[in-house]
Amino acid sequence: MVRNIFSQASRWTVIYKSCLIDGLKHRCFCARSSQEPGSIGQEQKINGRDINESLLKKKILDSALQFVNQYGWNKTSISAGAEILGYPGIIHGMYAKGGIELVQHFYMTSNNNLIDFLKARSAVISTESNNEFSRSLIRDAIQERLKMIIPFIDRWPEALALMSQPQNVPTALANLLTMVDDICYYAGDRSVNMSWYSRRVGLAGLYKVTELYMLQDTSEDFARTWNFLNRRMEEAEHLEGYFLQTENASQFAKQFASATFTTARNILGLRWNR
């Protein structure tokens, strides 16, 4: 099974490299073409228009979040967000995929906010041992990230339903994988063996099961959810050694994980800029 997974991951890597080469060829052609008179100014106008449109879409999605609890994760919220900024409601036509674009915007914005939290948290001088610091940072990071959902907790099942639709799964999975990878990185995980893979997959599962538990939690300040998180983390620590078995499995996992997380960041258009 591991060999099949690794084979699939290798095919992803080959496909990505092929796309990268094609992209480089295309950029070289564009670079040659841009030497023609007047083409530089035209290209700058096109790039500027793309940037302005991207910023406008982000601005409207930021505004639309305040209407999610009222209307849901859909174009109605996007229209309301546009109108309060002075744009016509029909501008929601810019969002061809509909409400999932609002969900993905919130998810990526929250992930970026989590990185700021991780940077600040990891910079604090601690008297804890490395293992204790790593464990506490992971727990705090998961809790911090889940807290970002709380303002939309009543509408979050709707967001999960949108992310679970087949056409939206790749981006939803990529968002989750990059989030747990960032948490592990700032928690000090620089391993190059099976644990690199097992910790990230385990953390992704831990996050999702705690997220689902939180949706049903009616305790004050979600106290039961945080207790649930602590118990699951203790169980995960006992199970981690199960994955660290053979040198071959470690090598397969290392290459598979590298391909998987690289693919995830490529889907989101992210760079490794740590």
Question: Which descriptor suits the 3D outline?
Answer: elongated
Largest sheet: none
What is the structural class?
mainly alpha
End-to-end Cα distance? 33 Å
Instruction: Classify the helix fraction into a percent range.
Output: over 70%
Provide the gyration radius in Å. 21 Å
Q: Give the oligomeric state.
A: single chain
Query: Hey, roughly how much beta strand do the residues contain?
Result: under 5%
The average pLDDT score comes to 76
Uncertain segments of ≥5 residues (pLDDT<50)?
Answer: 1-46, 241-250
Number of strands: 0
How many distinct helices? Answer: 11
H/E element order:
HHHHHHHHHHH
- How many domain modules? 2
